Amino acid sequence: xxxxxxxxxxxFIKGLSLLKQSGVRRFVILPLLINILIFTGLIWLLxxxxxxxxxxxxxxxxxxxxxxxxxxxxxFSIAAAIILFFGFSLLANLVGAPFNSYLAAAVEEHxxxxxxQSNKPFLQEASEALLGELRKLLYFAAxxxxxxxxxxxxxxxxxxxxxxxxxxxxxLVVEYADYPxxxxxxxxxxxxKRLREKR
Length: 199
What we know:
Radius of gyration: 22 Å
Distance between the termini: 8 Å
Number of strands: 0
Strand content: under 5%
Order of helices and strands: HHHHHH
Number of helices: 6
Structural class: mainly alpha
Largest sheet: none
């Protein structure tokens, strides 16, 4: 068990230093650029559609309510920020899924000098990664929905934030341990079993 709480921060800093490696960098930059393009496009599309809605709605209101325009845009901005905050991780993981096993393999090769063997073509690897992401989403829903419902039960809901913190930490481990384990041929149930053995 890790006793030093700064160990995770230390690994994060070590991980950032790996971005300088050419074999690693491309598997970070490409999904990042795709995510930026997708989110920029979505924000542009939504703001354009919302602007048309506001332009349609305001003439139907009395003139003394014209000040609502800025309120609508403020509410839109807050809603967009919330959706971006919660949706980014989900979409980023789906977009990054085809690249994450290659990223894990490049990091492993850099750290150990040995590259995990994978003779699968990119399309097969990408489709398996996307299916794996969907499987993890179902796993998340299977536990997340009961935890969400637990938050509505009086008195019991006091422990709900702590359970969410533990569950969130567990899901992050499952999410990002999946790729290096998967590069060694381990399936999702076996990965969860091994992670439970060494929490």
